[in-house]
Every structure is written in structure tokens, then in C-alpha cells.
Design brief:
single chain; alpha+beta; 5-stranded mixed β-sheet; 4-stranded antiparallel β-sheet; 13 helices; globular
Length: about 425
């Protein structure tokens, strides 16, 4: 058996934890630079606010209905996610964190009243973190995700659903939209729509040869999982990413070389931290930038430049220095840059990697030791506690007019309780 724990309207729920007066009221969370809606409470959804709606377009709805608006507060969301995951680890020997608001639990070999277990997990997450969590348990990971969705649709399930009997699974799949099935992407959905496949049950009725031919191995695995045959492995350890990208849209157009290089240096430093966290090396790095394409009256440009690290690199000095050098070559005076980023590609495992005979091993060892010190500082005091001089203040300067306090990650923002 597998369980899928899915935090309900996660970003909006995190904001409500410290603003309980917002329970039952419409809440939305905006993307970087307060661009568009990326999270909505059920009440906000009922008003017709859709995922991705631009903020400026939905302002009339917000003002008419007194919708609570928040800028993204990822420090808060990440910490609340870690708290939920800690609760989940108390119920299963293995937990696979699928995303910031979802995690699978491997219940293989456990003997329990799984319906009661699902409800208990949901109840304990709510009690210990104040985050509402829907828990679905089923013989496969794909069915467990469907079961968790049922919890959101039917409050009488009390946050937990155990779906295992063939007749119950069939009943659910006969009405479950195929586009909402985990693993069915947009391209697959278009093919299925052309074939008249509308529900998950319709998908199950396709011939195996048809599924293999049209949807390859991923689609075949989903097909089998819907029929209760586990074939998507449980990953207790997350596979290293094959590419890492840190990019942001700026709150204002960047027009000076100094500010441009400061931003690129910050992106490079943060990308390096991610690279090191998974014990890998980058053999290629791209730095890219573009102007604001929505301001057609302004001069427009875009482009990117590559840097190659023949032996692979994962130390801060090498990568940040190279990123700054590339940024200086990329920058063009007279243009206002709106977005930029750093991308690592062709990532290889650090373990077993060897330097060429021409490499300066003494310098490499010194740089690695320095990087380890920085890792320790970042782990103890958070990213940005210590910066390279070229990073300036290390801030992205994003528009965040509605950001809530860092309730759980900054001493200055911890709520104060006064006893009278």
C-alpha cells in the first residue's frame, strides 16, 4: 500500500496558520513580483479566480469581495512543509517528498486499518502544524493520488480515504477526468481526447499494444497503476537533478553593469548551493538575460553565453567568478534587463570524478575547503548569511507589497504573545 499526503491549497493555508481570522474567507497568493495568482483558497476559487490569472486583471474581483492578498513567502512555505514532512515520518519508515506540498508514504508490509490510518495522519498534521492535509491510501501511487483528491471533494471523508476494493476503484475511475490523472500530460491528453477517451476508466479499457505504441513507457506505467498493479517505484532518496536553473524577473529594469553583475553573482551562488547539496558537478553553465518584451517602446534584446568546466565545478569561487565574467560579456549598455538567470547543464556525480593532469590541485583543494565552510554557514544561518563581495546585498529586489512576516524563520518576525 501507498499513501499520498497532499496539503490543501498549501500556500494559502500557510498564510492562514498565523491569520486564523481568514479561515472561511477568500485568500490568494501571488507569484514573484506579484504577477499572478499561484494559490487560491476554495473561497477564492468559488469567486472565479483561476490559477495564473494576472493580478491587475482580477483586482476588481479582489476589491469587491475583500479577498486577502499575499505576496509569495517561500521561506515560510518551505519551513511549514518541513514541519508537515516531520509529522509524516512518524507514520511510515519511508517517505518520498514529491513536492513542497505532497509526499508519498510507503506502507508496504504494514498491517493496519488503513482507512483509520489515513484519517489519523490527516488529523495529526492539522493538530501539529495547523495545515489541512488530504491523505489517500491505495495499492498504487497513482491511485493514492486519486484517493487524496476525493478527500478534498468530499468533506465527509474527514481528510482520509482508503480506496482498495476493485468495485470502488472502478466507480471512481468511471467519473474521474483523464486529464487529472497523475502522469497524463498535455500532449497525452490531446491524443486521448482525439480518441474519445474522457475518463480514467476509458483509459484503462485501451489495449496494451495501443498504450505502449502511443504513450510509451510512462503512459504504460500509468495504465497499469490505474488497474491496481504497482510499477512506479518508491524513491526514498531523490535522484539528483540533471539541470539546475536559478532565474528571476526583476521588480524594475536593470540598466547598470554593477547591478546586473550583482544579480548574476547571486543567482550563481544559489545555484551552486543546490549543486553541492546533491553532491554533483556542473560541466556547463549558461548565463542568460532579456529585456521586457511587454514594453515594445523600449529597446529589446535577449541572449545567453556558455562557460565550460572541463573537469566539472562545484566550488563557489570558480562558479561565481566565471558567472561574473560571463555577465560582463553579456551586458549591453542602453538596455533595461527585466529577467536573467544562471543554468547548470550536463551535471555529473561528484563521487568518482577526477581532475585532468593539468589541473591546479592545490587551488582546487583550497577552493573546496572554502566552499565547505560556506556550506556550514549557510546551513546554520541560512542562505545569504555570508555573501561574495560581487553580490552586493544579495537581494533580488522583487515587488512584494503583500508579503507576510517570516513567522517561523526570523527571530524578529516570531509572533509575540502578551499575557495580561
Amino acid at each position: 500500500m501507498y499513501a499520498l499526503a497532499d496539503c490543501n491549497n498549501f500556500f494559502a493555508s500557510c498564510e492562514r496558520v498565523f491569520r486564523p481570522e481568514l479561515n472561511g474567507k477568500p485568500v490568494i497568493v501571488l507569484s514573484n513580483n506579484d504577477g499572478c495568482a499561484i494559490a487560491r483558497s476554495n473561497e477564492a476559487k468559488a469567486l472565479g479566480i483561476k490559477m495564473g490569472d494576472p493580478y491587475f486583471k482580477i483586482k476588481p474581483i479582489i476589491e469587491r469581495n475583500n479577498v486577502a492578498v499575499f505576496s509569495s513567502n517561500f521561506a515560510l512555505y518551505g519551513d511549514m512543509s518541513a514541519r508537515v514532512q516531520e509529522v509524516l515520518r512518524g507514520f511510515a519508515p519511508s517517505v518520498e517528498v514529491y513536492s513542497i506540498d505532497e509526499a508519498f508514504l510507503d506502507l508496504t508490509g504494514m498491517e493496519a486499518d488503513f482507512d483509520a490510518l489515513a484519517k489519523t495522519i490527516s488529523r495529526e498534521c492539522r493538530r501539529l502544524t495547523a495545515i489541512p492535509v488530504s491523505v489517500g491510501i491505495s495499492p498504487t501511487k497513482t491511485l493514492a493520488k486519486i484517493a487524496s483528491k476525493l478527500c478534498k471533494k468530499y468533506p465527509k471523508l474527514q481528510g482520509g480515504c482508503f480506496m482498495y476494493r476493485p468495485q470502488d476503484i472502478e466507480k471512481v475511475l468511471r467519473t474521474f477526468p483523464v486529464e487529472d490523472v497523475w502522469g497524463i500530460g498535455r500532449r497525452s491528453f490531446k491524443k486521448l481526447a482525439d480518441m474519445g477517451v474522457k475518463t480514467a476508466w476509458d483509459y484503462c479499457q485501451l489495449q496494451e499494444t495501443t498504450v505502449r505504441k502511443l504513450f510509451n513507457l510512462p503512459g504504460f506505467r500509468t495504465w497499469k497503476e490505474l488497474m491496481g498493479i504497482p510499477c512506479i517505484e518508491f524513491e526514498d532518496m531523490i535522484e539528483p537533478k540533471q539541470s539546475i536553473c536559478i532565474s528571476r524577473s526583476f521588480a524594475h529594469e536593470v540598466t547598470t553593469l554593477q547591478e546586473f553583475t550583482e544579480q548574476i553573482a547571486t543567482f550563481a551562488s544559489r545555484a551552486t548551493a543546490k549543486l553541492r547539496a546533491q553532491n554533483t558537478l556542473a560541466t556547463e553553465m549558461a548565463v542568460f538575460a532579456m529585456t521586457n518584451r511587454f514594453k515594445e517602446s523600449l529597446p529589446q534584446t535577449s541572449g545567453g553565453l556558455y562557460t565550460v568546466f572541463p573537469d566539472g565545478a562545484a566550488d563557489y569561487r570558480t562558479i561565481v567568478t566565471s558567472a561574473i565574467k560571463t555577465a560582463r560579456s553579456l551586458f549591453r549598455p542602453g538596455f533595461g534587463y527585466k529577467k536573467a538567470g544562471v543554468v547548470f547543464t550536463k551535471i555529473i556525480p561528484a563521487e568518482g570524478a577526477s581532475a585532468s593532469i593539468w589541473a591546479d590541485t592545490d587551488t582546487m583543494e583550497r577552493d573546496e575547503n572554502l566552499s565547505k565552510v560556506l556550506d556550514t554557514i549557510h546551513k546554520s544561518f541560512g542562505n545569504g548569511a555570508l555573501l561574495w563581495g560581487a553580490q552586493g546585498d544579495g537581494q533580488f529586489h522583487m515587488a512584494q507589497e503583500h508579503r507576510s512576516p517570516h513567522y517561523t524563520t526570523l527571530w524578529s518576525d516570531i509572533p509575540k504573545v502578551t499575557v495580561k
